[in-house]
Write a structure and sequence with these properties.
The complex is a heterodimer.
Chain A (H helix, E strand, L loop, with lengths): L7 H15 L13 E4 L8 E4 L5 E8 L2 E8 L4 H8 L18 E4 L2 E4 L12 E3 L1 H7 L6 H8 L9 H14 L5 H7 L11 H13 L10
Helix pairs in contact in A: 4-7
Chain B lengths: L14 H5 L15 E7 L5 E7 L1 H4 L4 E6 H4 L27 E2 L5 E7 L2 H10 L1 E6 L6 H4 L15 E9 L2 H7 L2 E12 L8 E7 L4 E6 L4 H12 L6 E4 L15 H13 L3 E4 L2 H7 L3 E12 L5 E13 L9 H7 L9 E10 L13 H18 L4 H8 L8 E2 L5 E2 L4 H12 L1 H12 L6 E10 L16 E7 L5 E5 L8 H13 L6 E4 L17 H28 L6 E4 L2 E4 L2 E7 H10 L12 E6 L8 E10 L6 E11 L6 H20 L31 E4 L17 H18 L13 H7 L5
Parallel strand pairs in B: 1-12, 10-11, 14-15, 20-21, 27-28
Antiparallel strand pairs in B: 1-5, 2-4, 2-6, 3-5, 7-15, 8-13, 9-10, 9-12, 13-14, 16-17, 18-26, 19-20, 19-25, 22-23, 23-24, 26-27
Classes of the chains: A alpha+beta, B alpha+beta.
Chain lengths: 220, 775
Amino acid sequence: MTPPVHAPSSVLIWFMLCCAFWKGIRHHLNNRSAALATVGSTSGFFSIEVALEESMTHRISVTVNGTRSEHEVEARLLLVQYLRDVLGLTGTHIGCETSLCGACTVLVDGEAVKSCTMLAVQADGLAVTTIEGLAAQAGMDLHPIQEAFWECHGLQCGFCTPGMILLSAQILARDPNPSESKIRHELEGNLCRCTGYQHIVDAIQYASKKSGSRDSSPRG
Amino acid sequence: MTTKYVGARQKRTEDPRLIQGLGHYVDDIKPADSLEVVFVRSVYAHAKILSIETEAAKQLPGVIAIYTGQDIAGKIGSVPCASAIEGLKIPPHPCLAVGKVRYVGEPVAAVVARNKQVARDTALLVGLECDPLEAVVDPEKAAEKSAPLVHEEYLDNIAYRWQLSGGDIEKAFREADRAIKTRIVHQRLIPAAMEPRGVQARWLPGEKELTLWSSTQIPHLLRTQIALMLGLAENRVRVITPEVGGGFGSKLNVYGEEALMGWISMQLGRPVKWMETRRENFQATIHGRGQTGEIEAAVKNDGTLLGLRYRIFADLGAYHQLLTPAIPTLTGLMLSGAYKLPSCLMDVTGVFTNKVATDAYRGAGRPEATYAIERIVDVVAHELKMDPAEIRRKNFPKPADFPYSTATGLVYDSGNYEPALDLALKRAGYRALRDEQARRRKDPKAKLLGVGLSSYVEICALGPSQAMPAGGWESATVRVEPTGKVTVLTGASPHGQGQETSFAQIAADELGVDLNDVLVIHGDTAIVQYGIGTFGSRATAVGGTAVYYAIQKLKDKALKIAAHMMGTEDGRVRFESGRFVDVKDSSKGLTIQQVAGESYNAKNIPPDSEPGLSATYFFEPKNFTFPFGTHVCVVEIDRETGEYEIIKYVAVDDCGKVINPMLVDGQIQGGIVQGLGQAMLEEAVYDESGQLVTGEFMDYAMPRAHNFPRFELDRTETPTDVNPLGVKGVGEAGTIGSTPALVNAVVDALAHWGVRNIDMPLRPEKIWKLIPREP
């Protein structure tokens, strides 16, 4: 008896291809062949060779941490894979494949997005900020939120940390003075297994206070 | 010695790279010519393998090789099990399945390709043809004679039976006024470190050297085992532990994939990378807990405990991993808990099931013990209508009883349990809570209030080598470089615990140098002397002590050099306030940096002294350590829905002396949340056919920030004399204390209706069903 081959990846691929179509991404249909094609990278250090049965690559232009670069990518390439494997920005981490852990959180046009839920082609023309670019964006060595995580021991193993920090940037951008209860609810989408969250909450409150917009009201 | 750093809330030296995303975890190690490996895993829980078809898959462009169990037979050793229990059945554990598959997720084939996309596409084309067999999932059913055999070479699925007894348990039950029992279920848990497992392997054919970057907790032990499994010389295998994104015991292991990756790199002469997906992590990384049974207490009517008898089935899984059978024995060792228990009996039946192996997971056998004890103590308290705090107090050993010898054969190093209990009750406002609870019980509209206590003692700082499978010591080398910088090489293997900072705190104080001049290195077997690794809350208590003793050796040598440099005798020199001073003329003094410089320059050192300034120490602890504490958990339950909320949580923990209070708080908070995760949310579920139903984070409820209030932490400090630092260890204590506190609180809220037990996880539905309704 031959079992049905468990194939979540191919279902996901088809789902994402359909998504790409409905988002109205322009296709550049070229090079339909079974040959190997090379996708270049800005640094030249990382290269992905892609075997394409039916190749459909798309030229995308994404501004990441202030630098605009162009690449040919497969439709199914996730934004997190683009950041890590094509651009070599490995600070954004992969913790799951179901968009539930938040380790892959980046800012896309200023909004916190789980980069495993976006295709690289969907980032065409957009601006992405990763953990590596957060401080420079603020024009300093360390962003106040990074300082806060350091001060408050808001990290232990560090794997969830880049995602937590970028999510925290959004939390404080939307509400510079959030209550503890609100912070805890805003953190719902991001998992941490090490800290038990309390020092992460402390870090966000610390960053809020440091930015001067916190009054002396009790933690709520 | 000046105390500037030890005891202080010191920011971590690890953090700058991690908060900037500049750390290197194993998936960030990318040799340019590395290939990618994806494993094909069984979708059956139990089946005969008929064929593994790889021809179609091999045609895909970009595929380099596909290996199955036949390809590696006789070439890679069994995945090791280090447990040595008398009569233990240890079945062969191949790195790729041969003949049968025995759990969902068991690796069946390894696909090697140019990149991950091709490897994943290829894995889908590998045809695994199987003849399914009946799976055994429930350990009690699996233990029956008629159950299908997981391993056909044995007559049944019982891997071992183990008993530990102390005192006269039969006498205890004869003399008891009452025998009170309760069911105890420890559901399987997924450790779910945020970083899944991964390996980057690189074989250099010319040098005949294998390097494995692996997300592991035990680099040196892993090196030894991989060398044995692959038939390589141990000193030609290098294990490098990069940043590790959490372990919690799940990476205290030797996995088949680690050896396979090394072997594949050797076959191809190319580096190869494998990163576990989260789904693989759920299926094929070890699970925690997995014990079911019943605990029975022999008690007097005044609440005195005479004995505890605890019988369990341990759900081991289909194969043993490194410590699988040993974990329930730690439960037996700690059956005395925080109490003067004259007699005890622990009875374990370890059973093979068609699931992935269970093994060490934060607490590793001790949460199981504390939970059973703290639950039965509460059941007894309710039965005898005694206050749960008072029954605990009554049975605590007193300070004069320490070092305290337990009926299980342990000697608790130090302890003073009553002050911790009193402090926790005071911080919680215990009396007021009981009054409020009584008031609400009379008001059918009020939310129910429950107060749960947990007074725990745990065994950690593992441990004396006699009791440890591969040695329990820890090593350190400390050297002062020619320019005065200090380098500490520790055999501990931190993965978030912060020893790069805390060991630097110790070294900076001991040597009178600035913290930022101390570099702590770990995790590379080519750089660091042999070490045992980090698990069992041992890094500071055992590893930190090794650092301390290495520094004393180093200072002894430095003192002789300093005396010689100052033209005086050794006996006139002391190390004070960061300098070696001549006691007769303290204006004359030398820093350790000055001494170091001369030790390498070697023009003015004693004639019988070696040049250089470096010392190594291997510290063998003479006992475990026994941290303790009391947690108080207060819950409010909605009568209409069974939903509950923790409205207050107080933890008073005693881990001996504290090197860095911020790190200790972090460990306790993280530990509490993991323990509450088990109590409230988490459960790894296999259905009757052995399918892992909770296969991703979508199905497995992980604790999140909004599930908890702010915890109130406090401490007592009862040092240990097991090590000169007075440190006990704290990594697992929070987890051990918290699980029963929550369950006791919820049961307590319903106790006036006769509720005595609810199995974990405490889902609102379970609670709702127990609340009496209007007919």
